[in-house]
Every structure is written in structure tokens, then in C-alpha cells.
Write the C-alpha cells for this entry.
Amino acid sequence: MAVQRGKAVIDRDYTISRIDPRIYGGFIEHMGRCVYGGIYDPKHAEADASGFRQDVLAMVQELQVPMIRYPGGNFVSGFRWEDSVGPKAERPVRMDAAWKSIEPNEVGLNEFHGWADRAGSEVMMAVNLGTRGVEAAAQLLEYCNVKGGTAFSELRKKHGRTEPYDYKVWCLGNEMDGPWQICNKSAEEYGVLARETAKVMKRIDPSIELVACGSSSMNLPTFPQWDATVMELIYEQADYLSVHLYIDNKEDDLDNYLLKGIQMDRYIESITATCDYVKAKKRSSKVMNLSFDEWNVVPGNWKKNDVEPWTFAPALCEGNYSMADAVVFGNMIISLLKHSDRVKIACLAQLVNVFGPVMTSSDGTAWKQSVYYPYLHASLFGRGIAMNVQAEVPAVTTQHFTDAPMLDSVAVMDEQTGDLTIFAVNRSSSDALELSLELRGFGGEYTLCERLVMKHEDGGAYNSSTDQTRVVPEQLETVAVNHSFCTVELEPMSWNVLRFRA
Ligand code: AHR
């Protein structure tokens, strides 16, 4: 193994932004085995009285997810929210045309709220701007957020929930630019519908924040004109523009794949520039922030829609996340943090089974995939002020990237304690990186109190129900920090967490 050398400086003045905790959000959709057979499985030995699996809940709780987007995703574009409330025995079984699955409505808004509450998460609700529109969105908001005295708030009370849910963040539809979307729209059609829906929703509850649909992929021909047009129509009413990205290794080229976190940087920077173009055009002082409300890597061996249509809880979008996936995934988290001045909300899509960091199997087990750990580390140690890491390191060239730095990293300072955490990925599959670090301008001496690494000689190694700990973090020996300098070696293809104590 070759060892490359590089250096990096973190200066007390290199601050990016205070990180909005909602950047560690998640996503649960009525899709595949995310809800049914995932978080909810009443026949399972681990199910509680309301049918939710306690072992799965514990794994989600450990992640400290501040907010969970619900109930879709593509699902929301055909969703009749009224079907999912009231006595379970009276709820209809529906054909969910988004995923060609059977939706029994056994888990609905009230059950999900109870689960999210126990997970320690707020709910980020979505309204259907596919088959439905302003009226259904307004009535759902009334059901959720109005105290009482009106038809839908009283209906909620009748359903056993006295206090309003008071959901703060609402998605105005989902991926409405996508030809796969139920009632896919042009940017003009969507922009007008979203704006009119937003107007009514904010009259009902002025405290809510609204997320307008941005492009669902950089690869769609409508990107980024979609975003510009939608923003022009809804700049005053929206609070965030949504961004979605799933990174895959469809070229089956490991070295190229390991650099693909760069796609996320480019995407965020393009969308930010598009929003700022509209801001300038409107002579507005309002800054449009981003809600990266679907992001993930796609496991190499995933099965997309290789299932019988019109079945209940088919195994959609499931696969085993590898060591290489964990590095690219960690790099996506670093990208979100590097852009935390504009990305205020992000949702890992999704939390269980469907592209899930938590998996359940038919033999009844639940386990953590490789990507669970970078998410856990970032959520636990990545709260505070994001700081730039200025690095000089060797570059890598692959089929899609020229002279890309082999290292990507970001630092986070906990304002209360002064503790500093560096998240770093070594994106070379073959070479280690000996990195000289300087902590500049912090005053006082830091100690490196913890050093976590995820590495594996086999980039394809993954955890499974029968081998749950093949790719897990390890604690490495710490090294001395002398007058704010230290040197660490970052293994090839690794995710690293360096925790410095003030
Ligand atoms: O997360 C799976 C699906 O991917 C979501 O339903 C959709 O919004 C996206 O295309």
C-alpha cells in the first residue's frame, strides 16, 4: 500500500455556518417494506401493543433523527390522507399507483405520529399535489395544526388526539418534474399550483414553513430551468427549495464511484446559484435555503422493482450497503455540512429497508448496514458550527473526475464545550494518506480524545442478517497533539472521525 502525504489547516475563523440540526433528518415512505415489515410488523416478537417493532425503533432512536419526512415520496402523489385516519377497521384498502402496491392504511397519520414521537423526531409532512390540490392540503393542515372548533380539527379530536400536532415543515408535493410522478407537471403548472396551495396553507397557519419541489435529478432535461421557473412563481411563499440525489456506481468503477460525493457539491452549488439568480431578478432580500429532503447512495446489488405488482409490502429498493458505499455516503454528509449555510434541512432516504441503514429480514432479525455508522457519527458529533478544512493533498483522476482531491473533510465545533470533530473520507481505493493537521487560532491545547475509522480491505464487504458486524467502526489509538499540530494516517477508502477535546 502506497502512502501519500498532505496537510490540512482548520482555523477558528474558517466558519461556514451554524448547522441546523434538521440536516440530520430522515424519511419514512409508505413504500416497499419501509413501513409494513419495517417499522411496523404486528406479528413480530418485538412488536409493541401498537404493532411497531421495538428493535427497529431502538436503532432509529440511537440515530437521534430530529425530523422525519412522511408519508412520501412518490406515494404522496396518490395519497388520500382521509383514508389513513379514524377507526382502523373502517379504513379502505387502496391500490397505491405510485409503487403498484396494496396499501391497507393500517398505519396512518396518527399511528405514525406516535411512532415518530417515540423515535424523538418531529414530522415533516407532505401534501398531495398530484391527484389532489389546494383543498385537500388545506384540510390536512387543518386536521393537523388547528386547535379545534372547525370540522377537521374536531375530526382529529374525535380520532383521539386532542392537541394539534403543530407540524412546522410541509412539502408541497414530491418530485413533480419527474415523468414517473403521478400527475407529473410542467414547471409552470406546478409553480402555480404550489403557490396557490402555499397561500391558503399560510393563511390557515402562518407559522409553517413550506418546501417547494426542485428538480429531482440533475439528469433530467428540465434541470435547472425547472428550479428557476418554480422559484420565480413561488419565491415569496416558499421557504425552501427541495433537492434530491441518489448516487450510484452504475459504471461499476470503484475509483470513480469513491469520488462521486463531488456530484452533491456541484448539485447544491448549481441550485443555490439558480435560487440566487431569481433573488437578484426579483430584487429580493430573501435568501432561499435548500431542503435536501432525499439523499443516499444506491447499494450495488439493489433490486429496484423486481417484484410482483399489486402485492402488499414488496421488497422495493433493497440491497446491501458495502464499505465503498459507506465512504461515498460519508462524503455526502460532508458535502451537506460544507454547504450548511444554505442546506438547512436534509432527509436520509430512507430509514428502514428501502435504501435503509436499518434492515429487517424475513427471519425476524434487524441489523445495521455499513451506512448506519457515518450517519450515527455525524448526528452525534456533528452539531454546532461547521468549519472549513483547508487541505493540500494529492489528486485522483478517474473517468468522470479530473484532479479531484483524495481527501474530503469538514470540521464541526461544539460551541458549548469548544470540542472539535473532523469528519474525513479518504477517497483513494489504494493509497493511505498521512495527514499533518494544524488547529489554528483556537487558543489552548487540544487533545485527540477519540479516533473512529471505518475501513475494510474489500470495498464490497457488507453486513447481513447473519453477519451483522463485518463493516463496523473501530476505535484507533489516538496520537499526541503538539502545539496544535498532529499527524494521522487515513486508510485507503475510509470514513474517519477525529474528536478533539478543548
Ligand atoms: O425514496 C424512494 C423514491 O425516490 C421516492 O419515493 C421518490 O421521491 C424518489 O424518486
Q: What stands out?
A: The radius of gyration is 23 Å.
